[in-house]
């Protein structure tokens, strides 16, 4: 029997998925998950603090890295409450309004991160294509306007989702496929016609993540064309070397996300729950941590400033002591 979230006496609840077959071992997962969230919050927070306080790091490349860190922090903060509830408190029930709010945040920050990766691809293209005009094309004001446009676009596209889901009726079975709420997952539990909701969700997916991935590919096609016009192999490799970190970040972000979206929307056979969980964890948990590692290898200037900041604080502590 269908139930409406407007008329039922009790609040509508969804049931989050844990990892099947682990039993009491779920409590041990809190340790690696907590470590990953801690690294994400501390690492990305440190990057934001260093870039904000160091005037020499206000170049476009570092400002885009700052935006990426903000998106990673938002994504981590969006998934953290339900992950703690499932694996630490062993509470899998989530109220519908909290679920809708979470899925809005998760999808909004995912699209923000995708758009920032696209902006960083454009940054790399301009730096390689016309390095002499790089500073005049990507000014601080231009980067700030791009950041505002990225946020407004993501929020405006995803804001209707919670309201559209709230108007649907849901059956008795309300078990989700993940440890947090995502739009296609909640939509499958509705027992009424969802063509409008599904079409809008697909439109948002294609116009943001789909279009973004195509534009990133186009950017790298233009970068490759520009690199091949450089006279010497040494200079070509030097130019391509500036893109390695960004390419790794793009692959880390897009590969599990697109796989997960295609399985949700076009999969004819339902795969084991472990497949959903693995792909979703790869997308939502790893990038906020591994982006730090990826960019720390190539962006040594930031880490020199980080180490210098902690060394000065350490010396000041010893002097006061």
Describe the structure.
This protein starts with a strand and ends with a helix. The strands form two sheets. The protein has a two-stranded antiparallel sheet. The longest helix has 34 residues, at 96-129. Residues 1-9 and 317-321 have low confidence and may be disordered. The chain has 321 residues and is mainly α. It is globular. It has helices spanning 26-53, 60-87, 96-129, 134-137, 140-158, 160-166, 183-187, 195-228, 233-241, 244-266, 273-284, 286-298, 300-320; strands spanning 3-4, 13-15, 93-95, 169-170. 74% of the residues lie in helices and 3% in strands. The protein has 13 helices and four strands. Helix 3 (96-129) packs antiparallel against helix 10 (244-266).
- Describe the largest sheet: 2 strands, antiparallel
What is the N-to-C succession of helices and strands? EEHHEHHHHEHHHHHHH
Helical residues, percent: over 70%
Number of DSSP strands?
A: 4
Helix and strand content put the structural class at mainly alpha
Give the rounded overall mean pLDDT.
84
What's this model, at a glance?
The chain has 321 residues and is mainly α. 74% of the residues lie in helices and 3% in strands.
What are its keywords?
321 residues; mainly alpha; two-stranded antiparallel ribbon; two-stranded antiparallel sheet
Task: Describe the protein's topology.
Blueprint: E1 3-4, E2 13-15, H1 26-53, H2 60-87, E3 93-95, H3 96-129, H4 134-137, H5 140-158, H6 160-166, E4 169-170, H7 183-187, H8 195-228, H9 233-241, H10 244-266, H11 273-284, H12 286-298, H13 300-320
Antiparallel strand pairs: 1-4, 2-3
